[in-house]
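Q: Start with the shorter request: fold the first protein.
A: Done. Sequence, then structure:
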Amino acid sequence: MDRTALVTGANRGIGLEVCRALAGRGLRVLLGARDEALGEEEAGRLRSEGLAVRAVPLDVGRDASVAALVGRLDGAGERVDVLVNNAGIYPSDPLLGPDGERALAEALAVNLLGAVRTCRAFLPGMVTRGHGRVVNVSSGYGSFGEGLEGPAAYAISKAALNALTVKLAEEVRGSPDVKVNAVCPGWVRTRMGGTGASRSVERGAETIVWLATLPEDGPSGGFFRDRRAIPW
């Protein structure tokens, strides 16, 4: 398969498993990580399994970092066909507490604006080429239909990410083989989810990989868990 996927926040947890699964399906995978050394360490492990994975430095919270990656890829004549916006943070400060505004600003900078930056960087190229998949890793905590549970800053940022998904899907609707969707991976055993979480990283990655490899007649502009649509 002559496709390249970029997975953000991918040096551990769900992102790392998504890299493994996509590479196992024959995609070339760019493993995005803020810490280049950690990213290269994990990419090296995947390459030892015979998978086509390369680490790239990427901090989605910084415009300059996204621009630098775009420059590197453009200079090498590389494209991104699949974008998995997995990078995220989980601030738990109460919104009315002393650090509430800072927590919200940080959550929006990464969980929302990080995806805005990468989509603006790579989605237009997908539209031009007539093929692309964008998967925004959200959460049920960002669903009005499920009660916006969880810490305020996190829930607000994921609700905003869901709204971004809907609006981007509308903007690319004229390109039938470009899909933009959001996913709730569920409560997964990662550093963020904790050891008591009910799901393995493999299960958490499953629907992300499904959305990243949808056929041309697959859905766009939806929010999914376990391959089923869930309420916004």
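Q: Next, the second protein, separately.
A: Sequence, then structure:
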Amino acid sequence: MRYFFRRLGRFLMMVLVLGAGYFFLFLPAQFDRNVNVVVPHAPYVISPRAQALHDSLRVADMHADTLMWKRDPLKRHKRGHVDVPRLREGGVALQVFSTVSYVPGGQNVKANRMSHDRIGLLDFAQLWPPATWFSIRARALYQAKRLQSAAARSDGTLVVALSAKDMEDALALRALNPDIVIGILSSEGGHPLEGRIDNLDVLYAAGYREIGLQHFFDNRLGGSLHGVGKGGLTPFGREVVKRMLAKHMIIDVAHSSEKVVEDVLDLTDAPIVISHTGVRSLCNHPQRNISDALLKRIADRGGLIGIGYWKQAVCDPTPDGIARTIKAAAEKFGVDHIALGSDFDGTITSYFDTSELAVLTDALLKQGMSESDIRKVMGENEIAFYLANLPQ
């Protein structure tokens, strides 16, 4: 009998070890692979004209959630959408890296409460530090540290820009070495502040230069487009906006309720961004795309509209469909105010990853957009915006 129980104990221990190995080593990668999808396709055929044009571009993207996944940003991966090697292959000079720090259970585009935290379990499975399992601020700080660590290990080929001068210097170096990629750090939602204004200084010190006010739920700053109340800025939200402006941080209203967007535009005449979105008159999805009138106010203020790559934003997420939206948005709001806002690695299904961005240049040419306008929307608008609006 003692022998039986000894064998049973060894068997149960083996099952426990194998289960833990699967949970920590394989499950995070499988989940990443399942939610950050690139639709299988044959290699895209790019016209010689489009390829030559693309090779001359400084591409820029306003939103990727790469830092939340268990991938070394410096290594090329077969899953997900973005890493530094693929950014280089796609001709990307500037990538805004956004950090996701809270996802509610049952997340949807219509109405969510800040409850049933799902990110804590993902952090645990990915073996993030214990502080991140329970603290939203700790998650934001850890993802910032991941980007800074990657830059430190990159031999100068990944530069985190904290100021306009940092960008200028990195762009000058990139003219000599096209392998250089510039990163800017953004928080997807103001909830890492945890209701304390002094935490804005903590995030700034960690490298954050842009903050999206909301994500998929109403928070202490105000209402989300996908929240329950969908209200405007709270008194705390107004305080945060004013402090951000004083620190020359960039305000992102992607995911914010229309009332929050109105309140921000009424509170300041500073240019703001909506980093990843669609255009409602082109893709009528009111739970994801704000009104054209508000997009026009953002553009008229000198802001940027980042066009996303997924179905709820553009309805047709093929390269041709995205190109049609970009061209129509440029005609509607002014070509100087349109940029790329992929939402890569943000649990979207895309028809290409960042290494294949030449297909978008090719599609824009097929849509009849001029080469000078393509140059703007594919990157120069975004580069000019951050040069003008990052801390001097």
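Q: Describe the second briefly.
A: The chain has one domain: 36-389. The first strand starts at residue 37 and ends at 38.
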